[in-house]
Design a protein that fits this description.
single chain; about 350 residues; mainly alpha; about 85% helix
Length: about 350
C-alpha cells in the first residue's frame, strides 16, 4: 500500500512538472505578444459597459464594444505614430536644414525680444536641436521599423483578445473561482469583485478621458493649422491617462510655440479654447466621477503606477502596473473591512473592547 501511494505521488509530481514546463513554454512563446494580451484585456474592461447595454445579445454587444473602443484609439495612436516616425526620419536626413530653419524662425519671431534674451533663447533652441538631431540619426531605421511593426501586430492581436474576453471573460472568471476551496468561496469572491471594481474604475476612467480629450484635441489642432495634429493628439491621449500630467503637457508647449509664431493674442486664444474644450470636459467631469467614485484609489498611486510601469516594461507595464496596484489595494480594503466587522456587529474582538 505504501509503495502504491508513493508511486501515485510520484506520478502526480511528474504531471505537475510537465504542466509547469508547458506553462513556461507558453509564456516564452507568447512573450512577444504580451503587450497585445494586456491591451486586449484592458480594452475589454473599457468596453464592458457598452457590452452590458446589449444584455440579450452578448455577441452583438461585444462586437459593438470592440468597435466603439478600438476605432478611435486606432485613429489617434495609429496616425500619430506614423506622423512621429515620419518626423524622426526627416530629422535624421535633414540635420543642417533643421538648424538653419530654427535660426530663420527665431530671427523672424524674436525681433521684439531684448537682444540678450533673443541670443540666449536662440542658442538654447539650437543646442537642443543639435542634441536631438544626432540622436534621431543614430536610431537605426531597421530598428524603428521592427518596433513599429511589433507594435502594430500587438495592437491587432488586442482586437480579438478584447472580443473574446468580453464574450467569455465572465465564464473564465467563474471557472477560476470554482478551483478555489469551496469553504472560502464567499470571501474569495469578495476579494475578486473588489479588485474587479477597482480595475474597472481605473481603466474606464482613464481611457474614456483620454479618448475624449484626444479626439477633441485632434480637431482643435487641425483647425488651428498646427503641424502633425495626430501626433500631438496621440501625446494628449497618453498624457491624459496619467493623473496630474493630463493634456496641459501638450497645450502649454503648443501655446508657447504659437506665441513665438503668431504673438501673444494667438497664444492666448489657443490656450483658452484648448483648455476649455480639451481639459475641462475630460478632467473635471469624466475623470473625477469614474476614477475616484469607482476605483477608490488615490490619484497619486495611479500616476506612479502608470509612469513606473511604462519606464520598466513599456506599453504592457504601463497598463499592468496599475492592475497590480489595484489588486494590492483591493486586498487591503477587503481585509480591513473584515477586521472592522466584528467590532461593528458584536464587538467580540479583543481589540474592539475599548469604546
Amino acid at each position: 500500500m505504501n509503495f502504491d501511494l508513493g508511486g501515485r505521488c510520484s506520478g502526480h509530481k511528474f504531471i505537475v512538472i510537465l504542466v509547469l514546463a508547458a506553462m513556461l513554454m507558453i509564456v516564452y512563446f507568447f512573450y512577444p505578444f504580451l503587450d497585445g494580451i494586456i491591451l486586449g484585456t484592458v480594452f475589454a474592461y473599457v468596453g464592458r459597459p457598452i457590452r452590458d447595454k446589449f444584455s440579450q445579445h452578448k455577441r452583438l454587444g461585444s462586437l459593438a464594444a470592440v468597435i466603439c473602443i478600438i476605432v478611435p484609439i486606432f485613429l489617434i495612436l495609429g496616425l500619430g505614430t506614423l506622423q512621429v516616425v515620419n518626423q524622426i526620419a526627416i530629422l535624421a536626413r535633414n540635420q543642417e536644414a533643421l538648424r538653419s530653419g530654427i535660426s530663420t524662425l527665431m530671427a523672424e519671431t524674436g525681433a521684439d525680444l531684448p537682444l540678450g534674451v533673443k541670443d540666449l533663447f536662440t542658442q538654447s533652441i539650437e543646442n537642443v536641436a543639435g542634441i536631438i538631431a544626432p540622436i534621431a540619426a543614430s536610431i537605426p531605421l531597421l530598428h524603428i521599423g521592427r518596433v513599429v511593426s511589433l507594435g502594430i501586430i500587438n495592437f491587432l492581436i488586442s482586437i480579438p483578445i478584447c472580443y473574446f474576453v468580453l464574450m467569455d471573460g465572465d465564464g473564465f472568471k467563474e471557472s477560476i473561482i470554482s478551483l478555489l476551496p469551496q469553504g472560502e468561496m464567499k470571501i474569495y469572491r469578495k476579494y475578486i469583485d473588489r479588485i474587479d471594481r477597482i480595475l474597472s474604475g481605473i481603466y474606464i476612467g482613464t481611457i474614456y478621458t483620454s479618448i475624449l480629450g484626444s479626439l477633441i484635441a485632434a480637431l482643435i489642432f487641425y483647425v488651428f493649422g498646427l503641424p502633425r495634429p495626430f501626433a500631438l493628439a496621440s501625446i494628449v491621449f497618453v498624457a491624459g491617462m496619467v493623473p496630474f500630467l493630463t493634456s496641459w503637457a501638450v497645450i502649454i508647449p503648443v501655446a508657447v510655440y504659437r506665441y513665438f509664431t503668431l504673438g501673444l493674442e494667438g497664444a492666448v486664444i489657443f490656450f483658452v479654447l484648448a483648455s476649455s474644450l480639451i481639459y475641462l470636459p475630460s478632467e473635471l467631469l469624466i475623470r473625477p466621477y469614474l476614477v475616484s467614485a469607482k476605483s477608490s484609489l488615490h490619484p497619486l498611486l495611479v500616476m506612479l503606477s502608470f509612469l513606473g510601469g511604462a519606464l520598466v516594461a513599456g506599453i504592457g507595464g504601463f497598463f499592468l502596473a496599475p492592475a497590480i496596484m489595484g489588486a494590492i489595494v483591493g486586498i487591503y480594503q477587503v481585509r480591513r473591512e473584515e477586521m472592522v466587522e466584528p467590532c461593528d456587529v458584536g464587538r467580540t474582538a479583543k481589540s474592539c473592547n475599548d469604546p
